[in-house]
Specification:
CATH architecture: Up-down Bundle
Keywords: Cell membrane, Membrane, Sugar transport, Transmembrane, Transmembrane helix, Transport
CATH class: Mainly Alpha
CATH topology: Growth Hormone, Chain: A
Largest sheet: none
Radius of gyration: 23 Å
InterPro entries: MFS_dom, MFS_sugar_transport-like, MFS_trans_sf, Myo-inositol_Transporter, Sugar/inositol_transpt, Sugar_transporter_CS
Main location: membrane
Order of helices and strands: HHHHHHHHHHHHHHHHHHHH
GO molecular function: transmembrane transporter activity
Number of helices: 20
Number of domains: 1
Number of strands: 0
Membrane topology: Multi-pass membrane protein
């Protein structure tokens, strides 16, 4: 038995997998807090350092640039060192970046500190969902991986609440509070096990079985799962593996979800809601309080999504929720277009924003890390998830650099309508390219990739080829019986 399991010797099965997911998901809490706190702190930072709109966008975006670099670098590191050690490295970067950001005496130091925090966030977004997915049983994988996203939105909400409560204190306290969860993550991960799938990939089958025996309901289930892992285990594949036709459907589905999660506008709302609403006449304190409401809506939607991904399914959840996000943005844009953001119009504006937050966060934001962690074959899962996280952060970088400029150039109404159109496009994309992964083991999903039945469009083509072989009479062509289509 590995030493890392000693702290949880009294736990086993679902209890242990839940404990592991809870500790590792602290990386999501830091992810959410460190990206969200700039929304409140920016109001003070702009005044203290006399920042222009471009300067504010740069300070906001350095953390995203760091995340883009961090997630691409984390894939090879996690394949070589293991998922657990990579998360501990991210925790160490969180500690360093948080301390230096809180102590920053210039815009340059603050920007560099947020770049370091971005490296940590990128690494955490790449590896924590994989770690949880690889250690969780198939029937609970959805809700446990969504625990990471729940931690993200709880971190965002806590950052908004902190910004509101500390609006008359220094922005340095806003950053410094993030030190505590960073230490918890670093210390906690030191006592957790490695991923059994990573251990099997390294040929350490006995250690992999030790972990599986602790996190599965019975020895037979653990041994059968190890057999499935080993039977489909390949050596770590190079980046070029992701370009192969059989892997491409996973790449399209996961990267598409990652891009659309950002391009549909959710982080634009998170980063700039106080600035947008203050500019619309809400007043600084009211704008900050509105952000707290946005955060609470995110948490509630993610709680619901965590239930629905294993009850409804990942794909079904998105298709049921996302149309509501597009409609909400149309209404929100209309309120700004008609200048109805005062009096009763203010309530409609806030409710529309809240509805958009619930529908978008409860669908795409819930699914992004879960689908990305599920769909790739083991041989290139780390690198594939790096591309998922990289796509997410690349799109986030574009959004964070352009949102204020879009609002300034097009107006808030046209900006919200543009995001509404992207939400509508996302519905079409999911219908065509995103499969249902609920209830399948990771090895079963890999088998679907290999046999060409992964994406809905692929299955539709195969069904079409099958139907073309059926005689026009509608019989089976052998016994003359009617066929079931």
């Amino acid at each position: 038995m590995t030493k890392t399991l000693d702290i949880s010797r009294k736990l086993s099965g679902d209890s242990l997998s839940t404990f592991i997911a809870t500790i590792s998901a602290t990386g999501g809490l830091l992810f959410g807090y460190d990206t969200g706190i700039i929304s409140s702190a920016l109001l003070q930072i702009r005044a203290q350092f006399d920042l222009t709109t471009l300067g504010a966008e740069i300070v906001t975006s350095t953390i995203i640039l760091g995340a883009l670099i961090g997630c691409l670098g984390a894939g090879p590191i996690s394949d070589r060192w293991g998922r657990r050690k990579t998360i501990m490295l991210a925790a160490a970067l969180f500690i360093i970046g948080t301390f230096s950001a809180a102590a920053a005496g210039s815009v340059t130091v603050l920007s560099v500190s947020r770049l370091v925090l971005g490296l940590a966030i990128g690494a955490a977004s790449q590896i924590v969902p994989i770690y949880i997915a690889e250690i969780s049983p198939a029937h609970r994988r959805g809700r446990l991986v969504v625990a990471f996203q729940l931690a993200v939105v709880m971190g965002v909400t806590f950052s908004f609440l902190t910004g509101y409560l500390l609006q008359h204190a220094s922005w340095r306290w806003m950053f410094g509070i993030g030190m505590l969860p960073a230490v918890i993550l670093f210390v906690g991960m030191a006592f957790l096990p490695n991923s059994p799938r990573w251990l099997a990939m390294q040929g350490r089958h006995d250690e992999a079985l030790d972990v599986l025996l602790r996190v599965r309901a019975s020895e037979d289930i653990a041994r059968d799962e190890l057999h499935d892992i080993v039977s489909q285990k390949d050596r770590q594949a190079p980046w070029s593996e992701l370009k192969k036709p059989w892997v491409r459907p996973a790449l399209v589905a996961s990267v598409g979800i990652a891009l659309l999660c950002q391009l549909t506008g959710i982080n634009a709302i998170m980063y700039y809601a106080p600035t947008i609403f203050a500019g619309a006449g809400f007043g600084e304190s009211s704008a900050l309080l509105t952000s707290v409401a946005v955060g609470v809506a995110m948490v509630g939607a993610t709680f619901f999504g965590g239930w629905a991904v294993d009850r409804w399914g990942r794909r079904t959840l998105i298709l049921r929720m996302l149309p509501g996000a597009a409609v909400s943005l149309v209404v929100l844009g209309l309120m700004f277009s008609l200048h109805l953001t005062q009096g009763w119009g203010a309530w409609v504006t806030v409710l529309s924003l809240m509805a958009y937050t619930v529908f978008n966060t409860g669908s795409l934001s819930v699914a992004i890390w879960l689908v990305g962690a599920e769909v790739y074959p083991l041989s290139c899962r780390g690198k594939g998830m790096s591309l998922v996280a990289g796509s997410h952060w690349g799109a986030d970088l574009i959004i964070s650099l352009t949102t204020l400029s879009l609002v300034r150039g097009l107006g808030a109404d046209m900006t919200f309508w543009l995001f509404a159109a992207v939400n509508a496009f996302a519905v079409w994309f999911v219908v065509r390219y995103v499969p249902e992964t609920k209830g399948y083991s990771l090895e079963e999903l890999e088998a679907r990739l290999r046999n060409g039945t992964f994406a809905p469009a692929d299955r539709a083509r195969q069904t079409g080829r099958f139907l073309n072989k059926i005689p026009a009479t509608g019989t089976d062509g052998v016994h003359g019986r009617p066929t079931e289509l």
